[in-house]
Design a protein that fits this description.
The complex is a heterodimer of chains A (279) and B (314). By secondary structure, chain A is an alpha/beta fold. Chain A has one domain: Thiamin diphosphate (ThDP)-binding fold, Pyr/PP domains (Rossmann fold). Helix content of chain A is 43%, strand content 12%. Chain A is built from ten helices and seven strands. In chain A, the strands form two sheets. Chain A has a five-stranded parallel beta sheet with strand order 1-2-3-7-6, sandwiched between helices. A two-stranded antiparallel sheet of chain A has the order 4-5. In chain A, a hairpin with a 2-residue loop joins strand 4 and strand 5. Chain A starts with a helix and ends with a helix. Chain B is of the alpha/beta class and 314 residues long. Chain B has two domains: 166 residues, 3-Layer(aba) Sandwich (Rossmann fold); 127 residues, Rossmann fold. Helices cover 41% and strands 19% of the residues of chain B. In chain B, the strands form three sheets. A seven-stranded mixed beta sheet of chain B has the order 3-2-4-5-7-6-12, with helices on both faces. In chain B, helix 4 runs parallel beside helix 6. Classes of the chains: A alpha/beta (279), B alpha/beta (314). Chains A and B meet through helix 5 and helix 6 of A and helix 4 and helix 6 of B.
Chain lengths: 279, 314
């Protein structure tokens, strides 16, 4: 590994820890929200915004920017934390999450907060939106790329497969989806609630190029995003194996933390754990 | 002369495609029926057949709008507004995206296909959504101008078109003004607010009424939302007797919209001509209109009934 690569990995690791702490603070302050599925995708979204994507935070409407659509809109705390840490808006504003009058709605709302590319939250819809943006890029011969983050339970929505079919049909190789495969949804393990498995086979059979990675390994994520840029004539899917609640011991792999806020004590414990990793 | 509003839509799209390089069209395997196939022939690179997948079509249209395109998404009204309601609500109306949902085969005049294909609640669904503009053209000429106005307008628009050929009421000099109810005929004895194909029936009703000395005002309410509240309440107060006429359920459509205005601003007697809380059925369009009480003679009866209840006005 080159020294610059090592520096990059360290830098991304540092950002990820800050973003995890932001998520805990935000959800605790709001008194509601979705920590589990926010924490599982921290490395994925951090890698995109701090290395992979071509963006200008100071010019959020730049026509040639790469786009990120959070199809699993309930991970809004993660998106907001990343956008703030990347400079789209002041970090202090994160603590307004879910409060009346805030630009940080419970689920991402287009047109309120700089950097939010689409309104999501009703699951299964972000891939279709991403497909539309990708098609527009093809029509206009712009070389931007579109990234969509889906949940694993979200694969139970029929619209996801309508979009999967259409994206392959139109050969949008400027579209890369990432699947946050943390294995849990509200009612329990995805395999038990209504199994969408096997995922790689399903996506391949729908005409996508598929790669499986450890969703907490920056090295694997960086390589996968590089691989995706090289896929031609088809959309690409990165299935990222993750741990729900990653980074906070008592939230890891615990269904209960899908959509529950930590109380003051729990938040302090979570932040202490994250702090301990940092030092 | 009779022309279907969907035919006028197909022609308008081709013209608008020349004028607007960022206009794109999506369809859900009904391009020949909705007439978007004409646009596809002229502009194949800007036409996307999304297959029998209306939800994805609406989401894709939202994405195209986010990237600066003006998407027109078309299918039958029942599928556009019913099948893909949540997609329209959350990805188009909520963010206020510049998507034009232009649906054909609305109402019971779909005919033989029956209730599964006859939208009787699409106006109600679209009208309830914040940010959404709802337009129901009365004839082919108005359709062409309404589609052009919708494309020029920034924001989500729903346009409701029909399947069968219907009488042409306007000439090319007709000026379409989004959000304005147009008075087509004036008379002091009652006012008929009509929309879509019921406008021509309302005009026939007015003619029949005038034969026995009852002179009514006829208004073409092509824009159901935002409703021209001033015109509606002004004419209601002036005449003191109101009839609404629509090829749609009396729940949630034009009749409801007018009733809301009357109740809050100027309570006057109202009779709603429309589909009375029931599903459609198979049949020839003309027979269905008769069976469901949607003809000029039904409007005449409604005017007679409402005038008996008149308490104010002239």
């Amino acid at each position: 590994m080159s020294s610059s690569q090592e520096e990059l990995l360290q830098e991304l690791g540092k950002k990820a820890r800050v973003i995890r702490s932001d998520i805990i603070r935000m959800v605790a302050e709001a008194g509601s929200g979705h920590p589990g599925g926010s924490l599982s995708a921290v490395e994925i979204v951090t890698t995109l915004y701090f290395h992979v994507m071509r963006i200008r935070p100071e010019e959020p409407d730049w026509p040639d920017r790469d786009r990120f659509v959070l199809s699993k809109g309930h991970a809004a705390p993660l998106l907001y934390a990343v956008l703030a840490e990347r400079g789209y808006f002041p970090v202090e504003e994160l603590l307004t999450l879910r409060k009346l009058g805030s630009r940080l709605q419970g689920h991402p709302a287009f047109g309120k907060l700089p950097g939010v590319e689409a309104s999501t939250g009703s699951l299964g819809q972000g891939l279709s939106i991403s497909l539309g943006i990708a098609l527009a890029g093809k029509i206009d011969r712009r070389d931007y790329r579109v990234y969509a983050l889906l949940g694993d339970g979200e694969n139970e929505e029929g619209q996801v497969w309508e979009a999967a079919m259409a994206a392959a049909h139109y050969g949008v190789d400027n579209l890369t989806a990432v699947l946050d495969y943390n294995g849990l949804q509200i009612d329990g393990p995805v395999a038990e609630v209504l199994s969408p498995l096997p995922l790689p086979e399903k996506w391949r059979s729908f005409g996508w190029e598929v790669r499986e990675v450890d969703g907490h390994s920056f090295e694997e994520l960086l390589a996968a995003f590089e691989w995706a840029k090289g896929v031609h004539g088809r959309p690409s899917m990165i299935i990222a194996k993750t741990v729900k609640g990653k980074g906070v011991s008592f939230m890891e792999n615990a269904v209960d933390w899908h959509g529950k806020a930590p109380d003051r004590e729990q938040a302090a414990k979570a932040l202490a754990e994250l702090e301990a990793v940092t030092s | 002369m009779n022309i279907a509003t969907r035919d006028a839509y197909g022609r308008a799209l081709v013209e608008l495609g020349k004028e607007y390089p960022n206009l794109v069209v999506l369809d859900a395997d009904l391009a020949k029926s909705t007439k978007t196939a004409d646009f596809a022939r002229f502009f194949p690179d800007r036409f996307f057949d999304m297959g029998i997948a209306e939800q994805n079509m609406m989401g894709t249209a939202a994405g195209l709008a986010l990237a600066g395109k003006i998407p027109c998404a078309s299918t039958f009204a029942v599928f556009a507004t019913g099948r893909a309601f949540d997609q329209i609500r959350n990805t188009i109306a909520y963010p206020g995206l510049n998507v034009k949902i232009i649906a054909t085969h609305a109402g019971i005049t779909v005919g033989e296909d029956g209730a599964s294909h006859q939208s009787i609640e699409d106006i109600a669904l679209m009208r309830a959504l914040p940010n959404m503009t709802v337009i129901v053209p009365a004839d082919a000429v108005e359709t062409g101008k309404a589609v052009a106005a919708a494309v020029a307008h920034e924001g989500p628009v729903y346009i409701r078109l029909g399947r069968p050929a219907v009488p042409v009421l306007f000439d090319e000099n007709y000026r379409f003004r989004l959000g304005r109810a147009e008075i087509l005929r004036r008379g002091p004895d009652a006012v008929i607010f009509a929309t879509g194909i019921m406008v021509s029936e309302a005009l026939k009703a007015a003619e029949a009424l005038s034969g026995r000395g009852v002179d009514v005002t006829v208004v073409n309410v092509h824009t159901i939302k935002p409703l021209d509240v001033e015109t509606v309440s002004g004419l209601a107060m002036k005449t003191g007797a109101v009839v609404t006429a629509e090829e749609h359920s009396i729940i949630g459509g034009l009749g409801s919209a007018v009733a809301e205005v009357l109740a809050e601003r100027c309570p006057v007697p109202l009779v709603r001509v429309g589909i009375r809380d029931r599903f459609g059925e198979s049949g020839k369009p003309g027979d269905l209109l008769e069976a469901f009480g949607l003809t000029a003679s039904h409007i005449v009866e409604a005017v007679d009934r409402v005038r008996q209840r008149r308490v104010c006005g002239k």
